[in-house]
Amino acid sequence: MRPTNVTVIDYGVGNLLSVQRGLEYCGAEVCITSQPKLILTSSRVVLPGVGAFANAMAELEKFNLIETIKELGDRGTPLLGICLGMQLLLDESEEFGLTQGLGLIPGRVIPVPDVSSTGQSQKVPHIGWNNLVVSGKRLNWEGTILETVKPGDSTYFVHSFMANPADIHHRIADCIYGGISISAVIGRDQIFGCQFHPEKSGEVGLKILRQFLA
Questions:
Q1: What CA–CA distance (Å, rounded) separates 198 from 209?
Q2: How many CA atoms lie within 13 A of 184 on its CB side?
Q3: 20 to 30 A Cα–Cα from 70, which one of 80, 118, 141, 191?
Q4: Known active-site residue 83
Q5: Does the annotation mark 159 as catalytic?
């Protein structure tokens, strides 16, 4: 069987090496590029990201990648956003003022609450391992990138903001932090986002990457 080809978008704000290594460990041939023409000819695309939302959108615009990524969505190309890359998929973010996103999944990025559901102070950013749970309107994860993952499996998070999709059906998995549900995986059609880092989440994360490649 030939390896799956996957393109990782390089726009200066992602931890590209760890993502590349994770995908290659799963058997993929990885191309890292910022060239729109190469990205648009890809069979699968990963949008990584760390840092601030507004800075990331500015870098995407600088490389003429905003319309490129939107076209991927229109074409139905499988697309995976990781951490900040997941947040960029939404309409807008409240981080440091309101900033427009890619608009591929309706919704807004909002702060992780610094108070728990019982009124206790809690640390932000949310850092560490947390369990994945099936989102409220779903019965299971069949047909998603979590198909080979079990509810309760843990993945590694580092984030201060969280995605809030407008349509609850776009929430695939949550994690619970201080009694509050946080979107851990979102998706619409062939577009998916992981708030956690699958490439840093051990065997569970590798299962998710393999399912995306499949």
A1: 7
A2: 33
A3: 141
A4: yes
A5: no
